[in-house]
Amino acid sequence: MFIYFERRLRMNKAWIHRIGSMGMILFLLPFFVTAQVRYSNEFLNLGAGARGLGMANTQTALATDATAVYWNPAGLAHYSKESWKQPPYLRRSAMLMHAEYFAGIAAYDYAGFAWKTDTRQSLGVNLLRFAIEDIPNTTLLVDDQGNIDYSRISYFTEADWALMLSYAREMLHRVDGGMLSLGGSVKVIRRRIGDFAGAWGFGLDLGMHYMSLRWQLGAVLHDVTTTFNAWSYHLSEEERAAFISTGNELPENGMEYTLPHLSLGAAWLLPWKEHFSTLFSLDADAYFDGKRHALLSGNTFSLDPHFGVETGYKEIVFLRAGIGNFQHETDFDNSEYTSCQINAGLGVCIKKRLYVDYAFTNLGNVSVALYSHIFSLRLAF
User: Of 51, 118, 262, 350, whose CB is crowded by the most CB atoms within 10 A?
Assistant: First the structure.
């Protein structure tokens, strides 16, 4: 393998050994940090783009537009090629999406932009925001005399922000059309709970993407160095007194950690008839932070597979579906069964530049949350 890349990429042996050593360290890293983690930054698992959401988030091998910053930064290097579902050579790609969950209580907004700096390199930026507005603050509802005073109710916003900056480079371009690229994303996270608390966080994702005429493969190691959030709390004397009088513990400044997890993806394009084609995709997310509520789960390792399909006509209209979120559940009569989440979607391409995508999906299991209608716009120019 190293000899092949040395001949193709004209690298010296020292540089190849550095890449191999780094890859081995990144692969083994999740197994050494499992003892220090707890869940955080779950808003980063909501997805990006209605196309991906309609296909059950099977985008690790497929995303080659601005959403690749979120799904797999290595895919950015391929987005402007004459390839699957992409218009001919276009240097820039933009994406906007808005979604509302829980009957409009929570809003999720996404914006992405990507561009090629030359024929082999690409840059991308994504901005995500998940927020709940007008949350009533009843901490000071009772005055000093012990009377309830509704005029003391105030309102605040809980908002989570993430800025993702990506770089991707094409490393190998074979004569038969196969292309290999590598990429990475730096994540800057800002979380605020009114004026009471705030956190800054930082993380790193690394990805690989391979594209051929019919196959696409992808792999991403999320939160490579363990993403952390540093929390600080700012309570007034009145709020502190209210916490103590009601038997609540005072929050303390501290750290949250998000362990690395690995996403693997594969996709296969099947042309049929003259103007029709079907795209099959499979993703599997591997977690190393202990037992999870996933289809395959152990004490230290869990695997969450999900499947997607997209059928297109003349690369103008696309019908999509996906299945994922497999979970083992127990019914009221103590019988066990496996549940899943089924998604659906639709896409329309206008003059090979503007894509309008729609997804019918939800945040969790079908028995837990209602489905939402999600729209996004993709523009290549």
Answer: 51
Q: What is 114-182 written as a DSSP string?
A: EEESSSSEEEEEEEEEEEEEEEEE-TT-B-TTS-B-GGG-EEEEEEEEEEEEEEEEEEEE-TTS-EEEE
Amino acid (1-letter code) at residue 287: Y
Q: Among 360, 357, 369, which Cα is nearest to 49's? A: 357
- Tell whether the torsion through CA atoms of 266, 81, 185 and 13 is positive or negative: positive
pLDDT digits 0-9 by tens, 207-230: 999 988 788 999 999 999 888 888
Q: What letter does residue 112 receive in the DSSP assignment?
A: E
Q: What is the pLDDT of residues 221-274, one digit of tens each?
A: 999 988 888 888 887 777 777 777 777 777 788 888 888 889 999 999 888 877
Confirm if 311 and 319 have CB atoms less than 8 A apart. Answer: yes
In DSSP terms, which residues pair with 368 in a beta bridge?
none
| Continuous H helices in the chain | 2-9, 13-32, 50-54, 68-71, 237-245
d(CA 194, CA 198): 8
Q: How far is Cα 247 from Cα 230, in angstroms, rounded to an integer?
A: 25
- Cα gap 244→238, rounded to integer Å: 10
**Torsional sign, CA 47, 52, 54, 57:** negative
